[in-house]
Design a protein that fits this description.
Number of domains: 2
InterPro entries: ADH-like_C (IPR013149), ADH-like_N (IPR013154), GroES-like_sf (IPR011032), NAD(P)-bd_dom_sf (IPR036291), Zn_alcohol_dh (IPR050129)
Protein name: Alcohol dehydrogenase
Structural class: alpha/beta
Keywords: Oxidoreductase
Shape: globular
Helix content: 25-40%
CATH class of the largest domain: Alpha Beta
Organism: Jannaschia pagri
CATH architecture of the largest domain: Alpha-Beta Complex
């Protein structure tokens, strides 16, 4: 089969690879759409030791099974029996694996093998491109659930970062009951694109917010989150951009601000996200740009250059 293979920092090759093989309890999913994630970009730039070259990246996938069922893919493969899994916190499973990280190849390919329990059936009115957004939006669903769970009454929320994670978090906050949501995106091209979906501004406005979601995860955004959250509020940290500083721990301590690290989502979060998407609660889900998988290297380079307006590029295998 054909696949887009990460071969080293800022290097991708579209080439033939061995066909995906299923293990016990797994099914083969023919990939129809697969999104480029920020973690794929980190690997592409050589910043993720968990994803060594050569490797097939990609974990935001939707496709079709051998029996013709259209599905969206939860890429987290879990043990199902540890304390975290039994408690419904599968994203904390110590034995968890994720496609696009050894030992599992990713979905920038014509097919990927997945456990049956990781698949959610997609209804006819949802397109393949929309279905591929379930994974990144589920991260925001988890973050919104946790952040709003810390507050009570009317909630003002601020989201830092207008990529797919940030936009997804903003949509999820609204769907879960936040009264007002503002998104900060400094890139003017992307900000103009986002105004059709959310209230997007160039920098964090004055005032204190009940929930602040950092969907970037850099020193500067953590500092902005620390400055923007109200006393007793919550910082929800989803972004994995890098950096080590930024949080104002003195203010966080003196004003009893909660800080939640958010890693992916639980299985229930993924199912709830899919259900909200299918019911239309998260909007039209048309904020993507679609390109052929064979042109994936150019897509990565364009994202790197900051010339892509859409929050998400979706790749399409030709098969």
């Amino acid at each position: 089969m054909k696949a887009l293979v990460y071969t080293g920092p800022e290097a991708l090759a579209y080439r033939d690879v061995p066909d995906a093989e299923t293990g016990q309890g797994e099914v083969l999913v023919r990939v129809r759409r697969v999104g480029i994630c920020g973690s794929d970009m980190h690997a592409y730039l050589g910043h993720d030791d968990r994803r060594p070259a050569p490797l097939i990246l990609g974990h935001e996938a939707a496709g079709v099974t051998a029996d013709g069922r259209r599905v969206t893919v939860n890429p987290l493969v879990i043990c199902g029996i540890c304390d975290a899994c039994v408690a419904g916190r599968e994203n904390l499973c110590a034995a968890r694996q994720i496609i696009s990280m050894p030992p599992r190849e990713g979905a920038f390919a014509e097919a990927v093998a997945m456990p049956e329990g990781n698949l959610v059936t997609v209804p006819d009115h949802i397109t393949d491109a929309q279905a591929a957004l379930a994974e990144p939006i589920a991260c925001g669903w988890n973050g919104a659930r946790v952040g709003l769970g810390h507050t009570s009454g009317a909630t003002r929320a601020l989201v830092l970062g207008g990529g797919a994670i940030g936009l997804g978090a903003a949509l999820c906050l609204t769907a879960q009951g936040a009264e007002a949501v503002t998104l900060v995106e400094p890139n003017a091209t992307r900000r103009a694109y986002l105004t059709d979906y959310v209230q997007a501004v160039s920098e964090a406005p004055d005032g204190a917010f009940d929930v602040v979601v950092d969907a970037v995860g850099m020193d500067a955004t953590r500092a902005a989150a620390s400055a923007s959250v109200r006393p007793g509020g919550a910082i929800v940290h989803i972004g994995l951009g890098g950096g080590q500083g930024g949080l104002d721990l003195r203010r966080i301590t003196l004003q009893q601000i909660a800080v939640f690290g958010i890693y992916t989502y639980t299985s229930q979060d993924f199912r709830d996200t899919a259900a909200a998407m299918f019911a239309g609660r998260l909007g039209p889900l048309d904020w993507v740009e679609t390109r052929p998988l064979s042109e994936g290297a150019r897509a990565f380079a364009d994202i790197r250059a900051g010339t892509v307006a859409a929050p998400k590029i979706i790749l399409t295998p030709e098969a």
